[in-house]
UniProtKB/TrEMBL annotation:
<dbReference type="InterPro" id="IPR007791">
    <property type="entry name" value="DjlA_N"/>
</dbReference>
<dbReference type="InterPro" id="IPR029024">
    <property type="entry name" value="TerB-like"/>
</dbReference>
<protein>
    <submittedName>
        <fullName>Tellurite resistance protein B-like protein</fullName>
    </submittedName>
</protein>
<dbReference type="Pfam" id="PF05099">
    <property type="entry name" value="TerB"/>
</dbReference>
<feature type="domain" description="Co-chaperone DjlA N-terminal">
    <location>
        <begin position="27"/>
        <end position="143"/>
    </location>
</feature>
């Protein structure tokens, strides 16, 4: 019976990527925020998932297995969080102003991966940017630049 129990637990752990990231690794907070923004409009599209993987690979130089592990760690952290504060507090402490602005740009890249943005996504990024200490002006600049990167052209509105 003990063998069957041990075999059961081992089979469950085989499906999960190895934990290669320390619980306080800021990359987990970034992944969790990206996931929260992806889920803000209630629909997570394949294009958003692909963009997240592309961003994590580009930003952190990770291999596919490490990207899987980081996304899994981000999902775990995100499922335990009640709001953005848990992630933004640490990131605000660990990142300089330019890095925080860049993170807001990354979040906009996730939003525009599917070719559009919703009011809920706007709100999510507004809250995250505010908690990170990124100004409204810089948030809009980052949004416009992300729209251009996505091939959607500059967006002029001040929201």
């Amino acid at each position: 019976m003990l063998d069957r129990l041990q075999s059961f637990f081992q089979s469950m752990m085989q499906d999960r990527p190895k934990a290669v990231f320390a619980p306080d690794d800021p990359r987990i907070a970034v992944a969790a925020l990206c996931l929260q923004v992806m889920e803000a409009d209630g629909v997570v599209r394949d294009a958003e998932k692909a963009k997240l993987r592309e961003i994590l690979k580009e930003e952190y130089g990770l291999e596919e297995s490490d990207i899987d592990a980081l996304i899994a760690a981000g999902q775990d952290a995100e499922s335990e969080a009640v709001d953005y504060y848990r992630f933004t507090t640490e990131l605000k402490r660990q990142l300089n102003e330019d890095e925080r602005q860049h993170l807001v740009g990354i979040l906009w890249d996730i939003v525009y991966a599917d070719g559009s943005r919703s009011e809920m996504e706007d709100h999510a990024i507004w809250r995250v940017a505010d908690l990170l200490g990124v100004s409204g002006r810089e948030r809009i600049v980052q949004r416009q630049e992300a729209a251009e990167r996505a091939g959607l052209g500059a967006i002029d509105d001040a929201t």
